[in-house]
Every structure is written in C-alpha cells, then in structure tokens.
Design brief:
This protein has four helices and 45 strands. The chain is mainly β. A hairpin with a 2-residue loop joins strand 41 and strand 42.
C-alpha cells in the first residue's frame, strides 16, 4: 500500500547476500536522531513518521550504514537491504537523553535472541537457565539441577513467566532439556533486585521470558536434531502485514540414551541404570496488527514430562504437565505511553507413584487465572510512571494415598481456592542529569480462609559519574504460596500450597548496592553487595512422613537471612568475549522445631562459586564457547547412625536421622566446550554444533548414599558412596532453516 504522512512505517531489514533477516539493527530518522527503533528477530521494525519525505538511517555493526529514503509513493512494508561490512567501521554514536538507570548485570540480566544463539550448549541446545546459573548470585544446588536459586533462596521463590503468564514447575528432569525451546525466545529478563512495583508474588527474583513475534511478511521453516531431542518450527503470515503465526514442537528421546548407556556399562560392577524419560512441548503464537496502533498476541504452550525408574525393588513413575494460554493487547500512544491488557490461564498437573513394597501415590494440581490492566508513561525526558490493577484466582488440589495389595492404608486429599488482587504504582524522577530516584508501592490482598492485606514498598537511587554508575535499592516482596520439597531438592514431586489462616505468607526485605564501570569500551566491571531478611519460611517438621501428610499439620515456620558479595568482569574484543564471575555468599535458616533451634544452611547455600565463560569466533563461519565452574559443595542431610529392625526373619538396617542439613558434599567443578559452524546459501541456513560436556571427566556428586557390608571377621561396616551423573559426554546437533 502507498503511505502518507502522519502514519506508521513498517518494514523488514534483510541481508543482501543471504536474504536472511537482520536483528538488532537501529532505525533512526536523519532529521531526529533521538527517535529510533530496533529490529526484532525477524528483522521487522515499526516507526512513526510525522512528515514525508524523510530518510531512515539504518545501522548495524556488521553491515555498512544505509540511508533509506521514504516518500509518499513508498510502498509498505519497506524492504531495506544491508550490505555486510567489508572492513572495520568507526564507532557509531547514537544521541539520546542521559539514562542514569542503566541496567547492572548483577541486578537485572537482559538477553535477546542474538545473545541466546551464543549461549552455552549443554547437550546440543542453548540453555537459558544454565547460562543464568553461571552469573553471580545464582547458585547451582547440584551439577545437573537446572533450577534457579537466587541470593540464598530456593527455586520455589522465583516467579517464572512466559509471555506474561506464570509457569509453576517449568523445570525438566535434571535440566536434561532446556526449560524453553531457544528457537522461540525473543528476550529474557531476570531481575534480582530493584524491582518495579508491577512485579510481585515472589520472594526472590522474577524471570520474564517473551517469545518471538512471528514474521509478518515471509515464511520460515526449521528442523533440528541433537543428542537428546528433535525440534521443528514454522512461522509466516496468515494475512500479510496483519496476522502471522509461529508454531513449534520439541520431543526428547532420553530413553534411547538410557538403552545405549545400559548396553555399554550394564555388565560393570556397581552399575546403576539411567531412568527412562520422555519430554515433549508444543507452542503456538498468533500475532495481530490492528488499527489505531493496537497489537494482540495469543500464546498457547504445553509441556509434558514422563519419568520411569525401575531398579531392584524400586518402581517409580511420574508424569507432570505445564499448560498456559496467554492473551496480550498493547497500544502505543505518541511513542511515550503504553496501554497493556493481559489475561491468561496456567495449569500444572503432577501424578506419581512409588512402589518399594507397597504403592504410594500422589497428585498435585494447580490452576490460576491471571488478569492485568496497566498504563505506562515513558517520556524521553521528565518524570516516568506506570500503574496497574492485577488479580489472580487460584485452585490447589493435593491427594496422597498408600495402598498395600488391594487395600488402602490411608488417603488424604485437600482442595483450596484463593484470590489475589491489588494495585500498584511506580514513578521514576530525574533529579539532575546524573541522578535518578525511583519508588513504588504494591498493595496486595490475598484471600484463603482469611484475608491478608500486604504492602510492598520499593525504592532505589541511581547516579552516574563519567563511566561509573551507582545503584542502591530496597525491596519488600511477599509470596502467598509455599513450595514443599519432601526430597530437599528440585523434583516434580514438590507440592504447591497456599498461605492461609495457619500458614503465613513468605516475606523478604532486601537491601542491595551495585557499582558498574566501563573501562575503555572493552572492559566492564560490576560489583554488588546484598542483604536479605526473610520471614514466613516453611519446612517439613522433623519426623514428618514424606508421602501422606496434611500440609497445615506437617509444616513448621521460621526466619532466615542471606548476604553476600558479587563480582563480574567482562571483556569484549574483536575475536573474543570473556567473562569472569564470582559469588561469596551465606544463607541461614532459624527454626525452633528443627535442629534444636540452632541455625542451619539450606541446600542452596554455596559460600563460593566461580564461573569463567569464553566465547570467540574464527572467520565468518565458526564460533566456540568454553565454560568452567567451581562451586562449594551442596548441603544435604546424612544419617547419624543405623538401627537394626526386625523385618520378617531378618534384622534390616535402617538409617537414623537426628539432624537436618548436617553435611556438605565435596566441591563440584566442570569444563564444557562447544563449537558451532554456520553456513548460509541463498534461502537456507545450516548450523552444526558439537562439543563435550565435562571435558576432563570429573565425577561431581549428585547425591551421597551409604551401603552396609558385612566384614569377613564379622560385624558390619557403613560405606559412603557418591552418585554422579553425566561424565565425559560428547554431543552434536544440526539445525537447518529455510526461508
């Protein structure tokens, strides 16, 4: 269509050689360099023009600068084509108002699709969560556990959202597969402090993942295969320039790896088989461009995991599913104001059975309906503010039972309904050209058996002086649900249960300080300090049975604290990106009913953690990533003795536990290497990745256990043993994309 003045310019930037889209290119008006846009992963952009003719200035570090004239006769969508740069270009300066609230990587971690493509490849796929685990303040509770444990709190204290809708147990078994298919992710933000008042109902951090907008003008197909999974993706317009679709599917075949592992090692002494495991996820997104600058997105997402483990007398079967529907509408007004409307439904379902000599069954269902109406005012200069109304209706169901042969020994089920609603407001005020104040308040009302009104004040001050940025923040957060972990570490058997008359909500008060410094445009340093006071924390009481229990009767409550020092050093050279990260932290818990009231460390208390991340390129086609980490050992619970109890005609040894979290495992360390080769030919792009997980074959402990063996001279001896998973493991993957 032919355009006229006072309208919106839409277009798609492509590569002159491959025809592929160019993302992260900046779009500016030649006459007004402070107004600009950035192309997304499909190369698409939108800018508003006030008068024609005009000239767009399109820049990208890998391409020659392009001056693209637009007149009233130009046809939408615009089709700028960039020519790859044949030589190094000089520094490009983009003028914009001073922004003193520049993101600090220790406070807020932002990743775009281009960053995700360069991430560490674990078993053939880029993994967002594993890459985040390498950053300061996020501990690895065990080597193969892909949960997020942020600044001294557990994986149940994060709020993880996908396209604005919460996921309640988005972790796949042992982190074998990434939480999200990286091919569909546009951006990821992990916030550890300095929270906007719009963020709530989580104690520790907020992980916001946004999927890509489907291409509005061209089709794209891709298929990929790696050690553990296969994926397919399609995107393209249903109505060109108006309605587009993105759909993907992923399937994991870890059971085939288990069979190969058993074939290679099954005849060895002490062999322990790997479990059978299946995973699939399905994703669909519709994007609609409407009149009057309204945009709408509908997201459908479903994941399903099945885990089966048979070893000796153990028969374990579990199934868990995550599903969500998310609908978002946005309208931009004069480039400064944004209206956002969100509504969505999340569902989590777990079913499991455990059969040592009788059958133990458990079911946990959680459904929530979430709504949000928000308005934001973000001028280039002056006071910025946002406000909104939110509500969440929740349904919790827990059922546990024990059966022996055909009879039921005992059974327990609970059904609970909850309602969370409230309002929030946030304001950012520039005091001077170098100092900014930001503050907000979140007012939440939660109802389950009784009403609870809670206030969440937030405040931060940011200052910039030359190349040095300072940020000081205070945040109070409330979480109105508890994740009960009978096994002490992240597993799908964990149970969600709401706060109520006898169960308090969890509370965190966090004070954080961050310093950010740029050195000569090639070196960046971040230093941070944090301190948290925690309340309303829940743990299973000593002696509580893990399977059949009433949460209200089994939980005890206490307080906690965590504090630490974080540091990050990043260097950027033409051929190499290097990162060195260090965390020194402590986390303590105080429960009168546990360990005699003495303070103890939770499983995710790792005093020291060091990560090194190196990423480089060789020519135009090769890239590589080398990572290494060292971390203090995980805290776990070990028996303090054994008692012999009569079982039939024999006396069998049973462990005796008198203390909880009483043993720290040995430190863990590992090095991984991945290589990627990319070749582009006309409308086809092929990516080959291969590498090695755990290069030097270090046997990091996943958990410790004890065996009892008879001595030749009589008597018995308790022998500690270490269970390790994934030694030296090569991997490979291939991905082909057609346009």
């Amino acid at each position: 269509m032919v355009i006229s003045a006072q309208t919106e310019l839409k277009g798609r930037v492509t590569d002159s050689e491959s025809g592929l889209p160019v993302y992260d290119a900046s779009i500016q008006f030649q006459s007004n360099s402070s107004v600009f846009s950035i192309t997304d992963s499909t190369g698409s952009f939108t800018v508003t023009v006030s008068a024609l003719p005009c000239t767009l200035v399109i820049r990208h570090l890998s391409y020659e600068l392009l001056l693209y004239p637009v007149t009233s006769d130009s046809v939408l969508p615009l089709q700028p084509v960039l020519v790859p740069a044949s030589q190094a270009i000089s520094e490009v300066k983009v003028t914009a108002p001073v922004n003193t609230s520049r993101d600090n990587e220790l406070q807020k971690i932002s990743l775009r699709s281009g960053d995700i493509e360069k991430m560490t490849i674990g078993f053939g796929e880029a993994d967002i969560v594993r890459s985040l685990q390498a950053l300061p303040g996020i501990s690895k509770s065990s080597e193969v556990n892909a949960s997020l444990n942020v600044r001294g709190t557990g994986h149940g204290n994060n709020r993880i959202s996908f396209d604005g809708q919460d996921l309640y147990n988005s972790y796949h078994l042992l982190g074998i597969a990434p939480m999200f298919n990286p091919d569909i992710v546009e951006s990821t933000i992990l916030q550890k402090s300095g929270f906007n008042a719009g963020l709530g109902n989580a104690l520790s951090s907020f992980l916001q993942v946004e999927s890509r907008k489907p291409d509005m003008y061209g089709e794209r197909y891709s298929a990929s295969l790696c050690n553990l999974s296969a994926k397919m993706l399609y995107e393209g317009p249903l109505v060109e320039g108006r309605l587009s679709l993105l759909a993907s599917a992923r399937y994991s075949f870890f059971d085939m790896v288990s069979d190969i592992y058993e074939h290679l090692h099954g005849d060895k002494e002490g062999f322990i088989p790997l479990p059978e495991y299946h995973l699939y996820d399905l994703f669909l997104k519709l994007h609609l461009e409407m009149k009057n600058d309204w945009k709408a997105d509908l997201t459908l997402f479903n994941t399903s995991d099945r885990f089966t483990y048979n070893i000796e007398s153990l028969d374990l079967k579990t199934d868990w599913k995550n599903s969500l529907v998310s609908f978002n509408m946005t309208k931009t007004i004069d480039l400064t104001d944004l209206i956002r409307i969100h509504s969505g439904i999340s569902s989590y379902d777990f079913d499991g059975s455990y059969n040592p000599s009788w059958t133990i069954m458990r079911q946990n269902d959680l459904v929530s309906w979430d709504n949000l109406v928000a308005y934001s005012h973000r001028p280039q200069e002056g006071i910025a503010w946002d406000a909104g109304f939110f509500s969440t209706a929740g349904y919790y169901y827990i059922k546990s039972s024990e059966k022996y042969m055909s009879g039921t020994l005992r059974s327990l089920s609970t059904v609970d309904y909850t309602m969370l609603s409230g309002i929030y407001g946030n304001m950012r005020i520039p005091v001077t050209g170098a100092v900014e104040l930001e503050g907000g308040m979140r007012i939440s009302h939660f109802y389950h058996e009784t009403g609870m009104l809670r206030l969440s004040p937030r405040f931060q001050i940011s200052a910039a002086a030359g190349f040095l940025d300072l940020n000081i923040s205070y945040d109070r957060t409330w979480q109105f649900s508890h994740l009960i972990s009978p096994l002490g570490f992240n597993m799908p058997a964990d149970l969600w249960y709401p706060a109520g008359a006898n169960i308090p909500p969890q509370r965190s008060d966090q004070l954080a300080l961050h310093l950010h410094r740029d050195w000569w445009s090639v070196l960046v340093t971040d230093i941070g300090l944090f301190y948290k006071e925690l309340g309303g924390l829940g743990e299973l009481a000593t002696g509580t049975e893990m399977i059949a229990f009433s949460p209200e009767e089994a939980l005890v409550f206490g307080t906690g604290s965590s504090y630490g020092f974080e540091a990050a050093v990043k260097a950027h050279l033409s051929f190499l990106d290097a990162g060195l990260y260090y965390t020194r932290s402590y986390s303590r818990r105080y429960f009168e009913q546990i360990n005699g009231g003495e303070p103890f460390s939770p499983p995710y208390d790792l005093p020291h953690q060091v990560d090194i991340d190196l990423t480089g390129t060789v020519g135009h086609s090769w890239s590589w990533t080398l990572t290494w980490f060292w971390a203090s050992g995980q805290v776990t619970t070990m028996p303090t003795g054994y008692a012999f109890l009569t079982h039939g005609s024999e006396a069998m040894p049973y462990p005796v536990y008198t203390e909880r979290y009483n043993f720290r495992m040995p430190p863990a360390h590992r090095m991984d290497l991945s290589l990627m080769y990319t070749v582009k030919k006309k409308r086809r792009e092929t990516k080959l990745a291969f590498g090695v997980y755990n290069i030097y074959h270090n046997s990091n402990p996943y958990y410790l256990y004890f065996t009892i063996e008879e001595l030749a001279e009589g008597g018995m001896e308790v022998i500690p043993r270490k269970m390790s998973i994934f030694p030296f493991t090569p991997f490979a993957s291939i991905k082909i994309t057609f346009e």
